[in-house]
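Narrative summary of target 7.
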Amino acid sequence: MKSLTRRIDVERVTVSARKSLQDVLSKFDAAVGHPNVEEFWKHVAVTKTNSEMEKVVQSALGPSGFMEFARFDHGGVVHKGETGDHPKVFRLVIGNPLIMREMVKHVPDAGSYAPVTILIDERPDGVHISYDRMASLLAPYQNAEALKVAKELDAKVEALLASASA
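Modeled conformation, tokenized:
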């Protein structure tokens, strides 16, 4: 067995908002598609052509060009059993399988990072929305084609963060 260890320096973008966490989540909910993920994958599995698969994906995307795969209520777990009002923390796993496909074609390890995570949490100075840039995750692989797609993805995600925080 051959083993390889690779160091990856990650760039984290954090945008803060002076609005409620619920307002930020509502903006994400309006921008991101919310398919039944189990049904979505069943539909993808039965497609016969790339064109058919792309139509299934496109139908699941929201106006931002992303869909939500999962949502985790980290705050609900952290503060379980406690009384009072506690900061909320949510992890949203969002993406677009068509974008993922273009990165994984060039760098298979990109599949470890896509779909992406958006962390939304309440802090004393407001709501923070964080994202780890895909280009920083893929930079060590030194593949220009994958990096181009990753930079385009980063721009789309960061636009979504800016919109949700406005």
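Helices lie at 21-31, 37-46, 50-60, 74-78, 97-106, 134-138, 144-165.
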